[in-house]
Known about the structure:
The chain is of the alpha/beta class. It has two domains: 13-133 and 282-303, 3-Layer(aba) Sandwich (Rossmann fold), CATH 3.40.50.1370; 136-280, 3-Layer(aba) Sandwich (Rossmann fold), CATH 3.40.50.1370. 36% of the residues lie in helices and 14% in strands. Helix 1 packs across helix 5, helix 1 (18-33) packs across helix 10 and helix 5 (134-148) packs across helix 10 (275-293). The longest helix is centred in the last third of the chain and has 19 residues, at 275-293. The protein is globular and about 55 Å long.
Amino acid sequence: MRHSEETRHFLDLTDIPADTLKKILAHAHDLKTRKYNPPQLFDGLSLAMVFDKRSTRTRMSFEVAMKQLGGHTIVMTMDEMHLTGAESIEDTGHVLSRFVDAIMIRMSDHDRLLELSRHTSIPVINGMTNRSHPCQIMADLMTIEEKKGRVPGLNVAWFGDFNNVMRSWAQAAGIWDFNLTCAVPAPLMKQGETFKNVRFTQDAQEAAAGADVLVTDTWVSMGQEGKAIDMFAPYQVNPALMAQAAPDAIFMHCMPVHRGEEVTDEVLATPASVIYDEAENRLHAQKAILAWCLKHAGVQPSTI
Ligand code: CP
Ligand code: NVA
């Protein structure tokens, strides 16, 4: 589903033209340089933030992003709303459209997110579903641009689960033209799902060989508590795996980190780990995503 000019939803990277995504990232870099004198682009505008799962980074970064640029936020968990009771997504979408200027929602069921977007006249931003996490990958690519100076042509390696974050990385590989090798246990491979510039392997050492960027995420995403993790042991990012990578390779993780599971303390303690820069860039990326989405409300960032 492609966005209409009227309502600029941010639901999946593949919905949005590549040149638009690149302009949003350029704007994020620009806004980072203005961290302490942020333009008041969102003066008088409101963002509803709704969560059906825990969040530290997504909640904080969107809230600070809105407020630093002059806007307001309203935060609710899904349990506090009628949405988990009898009220329909359709009615919720219509009503929120009368109150606020955009909705950022962490909604596990991606189909329900899409349904919400069909019943709003304001932008809906995907704050993570079970399918994807596009806002995270915008911050990740911004971080790679800072650390490596470019994204196209780089060799990125993913280790562990085939999850929401991995899928957004896989979508990004085709858009930004980098090579993504995903080292994923065989039982988790999904038949019929293919991505441009993405290769799958079960061999973590092979995926790490010469990689410029190594990425992982939790083996047990929220909602999967109790899942067996034995099959992930060969995919742990540890010093031995990092030693296979390019000498100046960086390590990334969307966080929260489960130390001693998907990554070891030793890796996190090295300069190769850029996880806190990556987390900070959520803030700057969020600002730029919001600025693009809020065009209908009169926001006109200079670079988009
Ligand atoms: N990376 C990320 O989305 O973190 P939170 O779950 O804390 O929002
Ligand atoms: N894959 C993780 C990401 C958390 C930010 C999850 O869905 O819980």
